[in-house]
Specification:
Helix content of chain A: 25-40%
Strand content of chain B: under 5%
Order of helices and strands of chain A: EEEHEEHEHHHHEHEHEEHH
Number of strands of chain A: 10
CATH architecture of the largest domain in chain B: Orthogonal Bundle
CATH class of the largest domain in chain B: Mainly Alpha
Largest interface: A-B, 31 and 26 residues
Strand order of the largest sheet of chain A: 6-7-8-3-9-10
Largest sheet of chain A: 6 strands, mixed
Order of helices and strands of chain B: HHHHHHHHHHHH
Distance between the termini of chain A: 45 Å
Number of helices of chain A: 10
Radius of gyration of chain A: 18 Å
Strand content of chain A: 25-35%
Number of domains of chain B: 2
Oligomer: heterodimer
Structural class of chain A: alpha/beta
Helix content of chain B: over 70%
CATH topology of the largest domain in chain B: MetI-like fold
Structural class of chain B: mainly alpha
Number of strands of chain B: 0
């Protein structure tokens, strides 16, 4: 074990990453570094490529038809788009929270146990411990401990999103990718999720896509600002928000462009 | 003001049209059930349900239609099992493995739709040719294979449609946890589509048990309950057909009783389907 370094190391890095959907350029030559154990917010107006960038980090971009990816994405220094890479191993490293929670068609318990089971955990007791631990981390345990066998569909949407967080954490990822995770939630559930992300950032690298500037201000340690498929500016949150270098960043923060 | 009245009249006209047609359909169903009940109920007895035909059954003597009841259940059950084991891989392949605009998926779905429209007597003729090629005689097995061909497109498209409803986000959620496509297909997609799959199975079973033309040349007919796959087997639709063709009123009445049995069986299956679908809906994410 290495002692934790005071300065953060780069966890995810893209080099000249371009992504096309059919013939439409969605990401244009993006080179960015995402630091370890901090919250990085990707901000920008709708359609600027925020989600596409996020999808490239765990190769979910593969599941969309007719996409072309150029350049590279390095996770822990490994090029994940290399043909030798086992994509399931890459995805296991990352938990994903989507815009709308998407629980799996099974019980609350099975939802959390799904990932570990796939990766070979069979022991029921181990699974029970793991499920409880992750539901506790996600702040859902007290609400569901008496009804673990009920369907995940019976939960409220805010609870479902926390269930998805627990499910993602159960495969012991190093990175949490969140694609506008609170856009479908009410204010109380939003605060819940934001609070959890804040707690988790000491242990995980968190990348959150958001179009809410206030959310980015509340959460982010680093900010990546994108506009029309291009990376405009990135850096520590305080610097980007208080002293943006680029005119377009300034305009976006002030609300001139959105 | 006049325009307003016209619109009201139009509304009234369409409302009554829709109501009339709806009631008409319900009446047709009730009428059919009513006729077979009225004509057949008098001949329906415990003996008829539990005995095989004795000598002279078709001339009005003793016996029952147990051979046809058991035969139909075996035949439709076997055919459904065969068709299901072919349909599930197809439906999974179409929904999890192919791309959205895949020509193969398009071709497969079109072929299945065409196959849905082919009359069952054609399947019977096809089954008969297949039988001759394979060296089979009229038998339970030949009947099962033919009926399986008949219900395959219905079953396959039914399952396909129910799996197609799986939200993309759900599939992506499974992938993002590091699941492979096959794990996602078996543990998530099939589970989400299971109620739909089950109702497709029961519908196909109902279609299979009620078809006569496809089994006419292939399954044959027998007064005994078959003890092996290579023996010919009786089916309810053919039992109805043969009994209805006799000049004896009591035998014709038995034909209606047999029709009543078949209808009740199919009714039972569809009720079961609805019940199970409702019950299994528990885990389905809307």
């Amino acid at each position: 074990m290495q002692p934790p370094k005071p300065e953060s190391r780069t966890h995810i890095q893209t080099k000249n990453l371009s992504v096309y959907y059919k013939n439409t350029l969605a990401l244009n030559n993006i080179s960015v570094e995402i630091p370890d154990r901090a919250i990085t917010a990707i901000i920008g107006p709708s359609g600027c490529g925020k989600s596409t960038l996020l999808r490239s980090f765990n190769r979910m971009i593969d599941t969309f038809d007719e996409t072309t990816v150029r350049g590279s994405v390095l996770v822990d220094g490994e090029d994940i788009f290399s043909s030798k890479v086992d994509v399931t191993r890459i995805r296991k490293k990352m938990g994903l929270l989507s815009q709308r929670p998407s629980p799996l068609p099974m019980s609350i318990f099975e939802n959390v146990a799904y990932g570990p089971k796939i990766h070979g955990m069979r022991n029921r007791q181990q699974l029970e411990v793991l499920v409880q631990k992750n539901l506790q981390i996600a702040g859902l345990w007290d609400e569901v401990k008496d009804r673990l066998n009920e369907s995940a569909a019976s939960l409220s949407i805010g609870q479902q999103q926390r269930l998805c967080l627990a499910r993602g954490l159960a495969v012991e990822p190093e990175i949490i990718l969140a694609d506008e995770p609170t856009s479908a939630l009410d204010p109380i559930s939003t605060r819940h999720i934001e609070g959890k992300l804040h707690e988790l950032k000491d242990r995980y690298t968190i990348v959150i896509v958001t179009h809410l500037l206030r959310q980015a201000r509340r959460l982010a340690d680093y900010v990546v600002f994108m506009y029309l498929g291009e990376l405009i500016e990135c850096g520590p949150a305080a610097q980007v928000f208080e002293h943006p270098k680029e005119q377009r960043t300034q305009d976006h923060i002030k609300g001139v462009i959105s | 003001m006049k325009r307003f009245d016209l619109r009201n009249a139009e509304e009234f006209f369409f409302k009554s049209l829709m109501l009339t047609t709806t009631v008409l359909v319900a009446c047709c169903a009730l009428f059919i059930v009513g006729v077979i009940t009225q004509k057949g109920l008098s001949s329906l007895s415990f003996e008829m349900l539990t005995q095989t035909p004795k000598g002279g059954f078709y001339l009005g003597k003793e016996g029952g239609i147990l051979n046809a009841i058991v035969g139909s259940l075996l035949l439709a059950g076997g055919a459904t099992a065969i068709a299901l084991s072919i349909s599930i891989p197809i439906a999974i392949y179409l929904n999890v493995y192919t791309k959205k605009n895949s020509w193969l998926a398009h071709l497969t779905r079109t072929s299945l739709d065409v196959m849905c429209g082919i009359p069952s007597i054609v399947y019977g003729a096809f089954g008969f040719t297949l039988m001759l090629t394979l060296g089979l005689r009229t038998s339970l097995l030949a009947g099962m294979i033919t009926v399986a061909c008949l219900i395959l497109p219905i079953l396959c498209r039914g399952i396909d449609e129910s799996l197609r409803m799986t939200p993309k986000e759900m599939i992506h959620a499974s992938y993002s946890l590091g699941a492979t496509r096959s794990e996602t297909a078996l543990k998530v997609v099939l589970r989400q589509g299971f109620p739909g799959l089950l109702s497709a199975v029961l519908m196909a079973f109902g279609r299979g048990i009620g078809d006569s033309a496809s089994v006419l040349f292939t399954a044959g007919f027998s007064d005994a309950v078959p003890t092996s796959l290579s023996q010919p087997v009786a089916t309810l639709p053919l039992a109805i057909f043969f009994q209805l063709g006799t000049p004896f009123p009591e035998v014709r009445s038995r034909a209606y009783a047999s029709a009543f049995v078949l209808t009740v069986m199919i009714l039972f299956i569809s009720l079961l389907a609805r019940l199970l679908v409702r019950k299994l809906h528990r885990h389905v994410i809307k």
